[in-house]
Amino acid sequence: MTLRPTISYPNRKPPVTMGAFLWLVALLAPWAFLIRRLCFLWETDPQYAYGWSVPALAAVLACLRWPGQPARQQVRAGVLIFLVAALILPIRVLQEAAPDWSVANWSLGLAATLLTFLLLCRSGGLRWACWFLFPLLFLLTAIPWPQRLDLWLTQSLMQRVAALTVELLGWLSIPAFRQGNLIHLPVGPIGIDEACSGIRSLQAMLMASLFLGELCRLTVFRRIGLVLAGFVLAFAGNVIRTTLLSAIAARSGLGSIHAWHDPAGLAILCFGLAGAWLLATFWRSPVSPMSATGSVSSIPQLPALFPVGIILSLLFTEASVHLWYAAHESTAPSLHLAFAWPSQEKTFHSISIPESARRVLLFSSGDAAAWQDSAGRGWSAYHLTWAPGRTSTQSARMHRPETCLEATGAVLIRDFGREVAPVPGGSLSCREYLFQRDGAPLYVLFSLFEQRPADRDPGAMLQDWSGWSRIQRALAGQRNLGQESVELAMAPSPSEPYPDTSAPIGLLKTRLTRLVSLVPLVSLPPAQR
């Protein structure tokens, strides 16, 4: 019998054990749960399309930190882990009712962050968990910003980009002047919309600057400087982009912009990323602060109770949310905005909605018209419909007079607030505005309506999109509702000056009652539902 020598491999890494596999499952489950909720926001709003890359970049940062991890310690955190997992249920109920609500999305993101951090503490101690805190917090950059902050930044950037573009065009001997977010050239006006405001570049550069700062292992102050430099590069790049497009339009006509719009945007984004990367490389410390302080490299292990308990908790949360809304949706009434267009007016004519607006707003159907009444007042009305679905609320919320009208050169003078306007069949929660366009006043009434709400009594629950209204919708079991918007605008006759705003606002409400009525959705033909 021949004996063969035993060959050992001292440097060979042991295979991943079941305990290590369960540890990975426990860490990834909360984020898979969150990312599934955020995917439709990334898909609906191009402003946050960069969110698709954030999970992969966070995984890269975590892998880079793995070799230098400190020594582990055992910490008891089981009770806190399951308490945080239980908090996800009420957050998901709110988030399902208002998937675009930043409070619900950020609450869900922070809950996933805290749950993962506690699991890391349970695996290796507080110091070990803090070592991986930056990749964990980096995932939060994929969550959309609060809408008020987003809207304020967008409007501010559009105005400043338009103003600087006009100034640079003057240096190039191209005559131009600004009106709101419009740049008037000899060949016609050019609108500065959200895509040209720089807000998309600003948010993408924030994410990229944070990633490069960690990748190059910069100090805290240099990381702050890199973020600020990224903001400057994004803003300067968009000013250069709009100036270039305006110069091309002045030379070759407005139709030539379409061929250069997207390539110029891509070139400016590459310019900003390249500038941030060069600055991060220049500031990179020659000595890495992530030098290994421990010899631990194996994957931690957790008792099966934690990953199994977390997964069962998340499954229970999803089942509970589905059952809660399904029980209410089966009995909720459905109403629809029926329009009676004043086609008898001699000047009545339909308005074509641009295809670019359809791509941005993603509405299912839309109608628009303009006319002039016997008193010489100019009227226009827009009626857009979003079919029920996961993206209906988010898409409808992107259509606001503050954004759409200012993009056409109108300047917001006053927001009169929200009030209830009676219409045949019920009432609508409306908001009135006063704009100035071409030196003349423009009064606007806007309403965003849900086709299947339980708030027909205005005193019970208004469609004002406030935090309390969203909570009420969650308690009432309302989600995935079809959205409709109506925007009614009136330009007074030059011979009809108004000493105050009560008269034109009253005219808007009167016209609304003649134009719009609420009817049961089931009474409509299938083709119009």
Name a few traits of the molecule.
3 domains; disordered N terminus; 50% helix; disordered C terminus; seven-stranded antiparallel β-sheet; 17 helices; alpha+beta; three-stranded antiparallel β-sheet; Protein Transport Mog1p, Chain A; single chain; 529 residues; flat
General description of the model:
The protein is α+β, with helices and mostly antiparallel strands and 529 residues long. The protein folds into three domains: 155 residues, no CATH class; 137 residues, no CATH class; 195 residues, Protein Transport Mog1p, Chain A (3-Layer(aba) Sandwich), CATH 3.40.1000. 50% of the residues lie in helices and 16% in strands. It has a seven-stranded antiparallel β-sheet with strand order 5-6-7-11-10-9-8. A three-stranded antiparallel β-sheet has the order 1-2-3, covered by helices on one side. Helix 1 runs antiparallel to helix 4 and helix 3 runs parallel beside helix 12. The N terminus and C terminus are likely disordered.
Task: Give a quick precis of the structure.
50% of the residues lie in helices and 16% in strands. It is an alpha+beta fold.
Helix-strand blueprint:
Layout: H1 18-44, H2 54-65, H3 78-97, H4 102-124, H5 126-131, H6 133-138, H7 147-171, E1 177-179, E2 182-185, E3 188-191, H8 194-197, H9 199-215, H10 220-252, H11 257-283, H12 305-329, E4 335-339, E5 349-350, H13 355-361, E6 365-372, E7 378-386, H14 392-397, H15 401-404, E8 411-423, E9 426-437, E10 440-450, H16 467-476, E11 483-491, H17 502-515, E12 516-520
